[in-house]
Amino acid sequence: MNASAPLLVSGLRDIAPEYSAVLCDVWGVLHNGVTKFPEASGALSAFRQKAGGTVVLITNAPRLNGLIREQLAALGIGQDVYDDIVTSGDVTREYIEAHPGAKVLHIGPDIHLSLYEGLDLSLSSEEDATLISCTGLLNDEQETPDDYRDQLERLAKRGLTMICANPDIVVERGERLIWCAGALARLYEDFGGKVAILGKPHAPIYDAACQRLEVLRGAPADRGAILCVGDGLPTDIRGAVSQDLDVLFVTGGIHASDFGPTHEPDEALVRRRLAEEGLRARAAIPRLVW
Fold first, then answer.
1. Is the preceding peptide bond at 220 cis, omega within 30 degrees of 0?
2. Which of 26, 133, 142, 276: CA 20 to 30 A from 50?
């Protein structure tokens, strides 16, 4: 990050010529769980159509990519916006698949159970489990991580590994912040438990996304020509930096209140926060636009 060059850009078009591919976050960039952000969809469509770029959506959703396609379609986000999707659920399923016969304790709502369909495993009680798969809170509208303290402490004492299918701590749902599986994983670690985190900011989901890019473009992925787009400092931004990928920081997401007016963030505050976190960004923008 060049301290003398402007960090804030007016749109993706300002830096698009430098990149052949975008790995774009979904929740917080394309929608807030309730409403889509039309200009963000338009920006990705323009990157594909005007700049000839490839777009892979990369999300910490604890579900398989087909369900995310359905959710996006329901929000009015069509497949003209992206070429493919890689989810934390996809890489979680691959991890579990490598542990055939596991007795899995699922922590999360029943809507995530499709993650395990067709795998060689049995969904188990706490007492019999050999592996934990955490996709979220059972009722994220009413519960908090504190409701799980006793159970997580018991499980940690048994030395079970927890697979965290959604590393996000919180996510926007409309105007509210909702607790995610990452918050439970963090608490589990506090109790001394071992956690396998496969989504952002960790390497497996980026490796999977780059493999998709190679298939889509018919050539090895050039990481120097990949731009990540995201709003979460601990996941999207840290993940890109850890993988030595450039990133466009969408400041108007979960950290919006830290930078002044959402649509006119204070660049000095953005730079300071990145420096405090030991992070960098190729550019920043209030909301993704072309």
1. no
2. 26
| Amino acid at the residue 98 | A
Strand order in the sheet with 54-59: 84-87, 54-59, 21-24, 226-230, 246-250, 283-285
Cα gap 283→11, rounded to integer Å = 10
- Pull the structure tokens for residue 62: 């604890």
SS3 87: strand
DSSP state of 262: T
Alpha carbons 150 and 136: distance in angstroms, whole number: 16
| Domains of the chain (ranges, CATH numbers) | 12-89+201-285 (3.40.50.1000), 99-197 (3.40.50.1000)
The residue count for the chain: 290
Record the tokens describing residue 52, joined without a space. Answer: 């000839």
Residue-wise pLDDT for 145-180, tens only, equals: 999 999 999 999 999 999 999 988 888 787 788 899
Q: State the virtual CA torsion across 8, 10, 16, 18 in degrees, nearest 10.
A: -40
Q: Helix 88-97 vs helix 203-217: angle between axes, to the nearest 10 degrees?
A: 100
Tokens encoding 83: 């070429």
Q: What is the torsion angle, in degrees rounded to the nearest 10, for the CA atoms of residue 238, residue 193, residue 117 and residue 94?
A: 50
Rg of the chain over Cα atoms, rounded to whole angstroms, equals 19
Measured CA to CA, the distance from residue 11 to residue 43 in angstroms comes to: 8
User: Interior CA angle at 204 toward 101 and 76, to 5°?
Assistant: 100
pLDDT in tens, 40-69: 999 999 999 999 999 999 999 899 999 999
Contact 201, 242 (CB under 8 A): yes
* Residues 137 and 179 sit within 8 Å (Cβ to Cβ): yes
pTM of the model: 0.87
